[in-house]
């Protein structure tokens, strides 16, 4: 049940009760009106309108914007007709308008439907109509109008908070359901497929020859399957010649493709041109393999498409350096961290390390892999690239992109286009 549905039910009852109140005032003041027939005609129209539109305020789906405008028009018309049917002395004394407090129902409809901004706009219209009806800013009029305005804004704000809470709860329930399904799949797969793949990898490595290649491929598939059941991201498995096969997001089960509503597009480099958000995890997951361990948060790490592609390319360049300089047998680790104000990717290896001053010498010799492929990309994104290395202790590359700088980079690119 929607958290706002009780408010619609309360508004329905409010309109009926306030109509009865307005009818009672009309009966009591019948002999005091200058033109009682006009008051009776308006009250008949108000009664018929309330009866015919009873269903319109039963829920948000039925309460359209056109109806709200018409409802407010009925209320404002009644306010402006009051000087035509009632005497000036009675109006100066502060007697209620023809619709009386029924008018507040029209304002509350705007507040519940569209939030505090809609409520404030409708209340302002009612306030203006009341000032015109009285012909002056009387103290009692100001008090009443302030109450209408504050009440409409307050209720509109409450309904916005309630809707946000409802969306948060729905997301939490979807995440919980997806997590339970992922855990169930992980248990089943671990008890069967993963154990078989791990055994094939070990036996193939022990036998050697073609069996070793088969074992290596089984290890790649085991890593891809573990990534799938643990995070919903799938590493692209490699074929025998080292090339990557494509596994699109459509291959994922619905429960794993996105726990929070529709799945976030993986956005491989060049796939998106609208600058929309991309999950950086999906760009880095394909690097995982038997010699590369990828660790990432459980939630999507969203960056604009261009920024995500450039950062992923920098990580790929860092891994290329590991393969070239640390050797094919070196192991690498990728750690993805999503901080409140920045996204950080750390690439670490267990190779021999970089001698002091080697990076500067390589740049001076014209080898610009680090200077352009890594440090240049991060500089263009407003980020930084730092190396921590010591001979015999491996190398660690820390790539940091501030989220504010990422947004500026995207705006700069759009302006250049």
TrEMBL record:
It comes from Streptomyces antioxidans. PANTHER family: NITRATE/NITRITE SENSOR PROTEIN NARX-RELATED (PTHR24421), OXYGEN SENSOR HISTIDINE KINASE NREB (PTHR24421:SF61). Residues 181-223 form the Signal transduction histidine kinase subgroup 3 dimerisation and phosphoacceptor domain. The chain crosses the membrane at residues 12-30, 36-54, 66-85, 142-162. This is Sensor histidine kinase. Residues 248-261 have a biased composition (Low complexity). Keywords: Kinase, Membrane, Transferase, Transmembrane, Transmembrane helix, Two-component regulatory system. It comes from the Bacteria. Residues 234-275 are annotated as: Disordered. Pfam families: DUF5931, HATPase_c, HisKA_3. GO terms for molecular function: phosphorelay sensor kinase activity; protein dimerization activity. One of its GO terms (cellular component) is membrane.
């Amino acid at each position: 049940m929607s958290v706002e549905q009780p408010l619609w039910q309360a508004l329905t009852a409010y309109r009926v009760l306030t109509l009865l109140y307005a009818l009672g005032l009309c009966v009591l003041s019948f002999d005091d009106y200058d033109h009682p027939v006009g008051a009776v005609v308006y009250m008949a129209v108000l009664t018929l309108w309330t009866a015919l539109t009873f269903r319109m305020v039963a829920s948000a789906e039925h309460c359209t914007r056109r109806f709200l405008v018409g409802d407010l028009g009925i209320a404002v018309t009644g306010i402006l007709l009051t000087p035509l049917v009632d005497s000036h002395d009675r109006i100066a004394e502060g007697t209620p308008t023809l619709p009386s407090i029924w008018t507040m129902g029209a304002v509350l409809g705007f507040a519940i439907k569209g939030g505090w901004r809609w409520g404030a706009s409708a209340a302002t219209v009612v306030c203006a109509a009341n000032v015109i009806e009285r012909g002056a800013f009387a103290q009692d009029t100001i008090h009443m109008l302030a109450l209408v305005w504050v009440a409409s804004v307050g209720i509109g704000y409450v309904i916005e908070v309630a809707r946000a809470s409802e969306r948060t709860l729905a997301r939490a329930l979807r995440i919980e359901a997806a997590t339970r399904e992922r855990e169930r799949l992980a248990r089943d797969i671990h008890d069967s497929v993963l154990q078989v793949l791990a055994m094939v990898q070990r036996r193939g490595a022990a036998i050697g020859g073609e069996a070793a290649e088969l074992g290596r491929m089984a290890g790649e598939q085991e890593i891809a399957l573990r990534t799938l059941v643990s995070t919903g991201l799938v590493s692209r498995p490699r074929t025998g010649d080292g090339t990557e096969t494509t596994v699109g997001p459509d291959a994922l089960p619905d429960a794993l493709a996105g726990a929070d509503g529709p799945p976030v597009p993986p956005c491989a480099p060049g796939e998106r041109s609208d600058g929309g958000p991309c999950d950086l995890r999906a760009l880095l997951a394909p690097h995982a393999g038997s010699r590369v361990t990828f660790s990432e948060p459980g939630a999507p790490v969203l960056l604009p498409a261009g920024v995500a592609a450039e950062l992923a390319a920098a990580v790929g360049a860092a891994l290329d350096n590991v393969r070239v300089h640390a050797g094919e047998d070196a192991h690498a680790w990728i750690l993805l961290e999503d901080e409140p104000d920045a996204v950080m990717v750390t690439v670490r290896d267990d190779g021999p390390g970089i001698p002091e001053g080697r990076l500067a010498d390589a740049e001076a010799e014209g080898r610009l892999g680090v200077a352009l492929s890594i440090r240049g990309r991060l500089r263009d994104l407003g980020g930084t690239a730092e190396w921590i290395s010591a001979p015999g202790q491996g190398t660690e590359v820390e790539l940091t992109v501030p989220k504010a700088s990422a947004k500026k980079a995207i705006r700069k690119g759009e302006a250049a286009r």
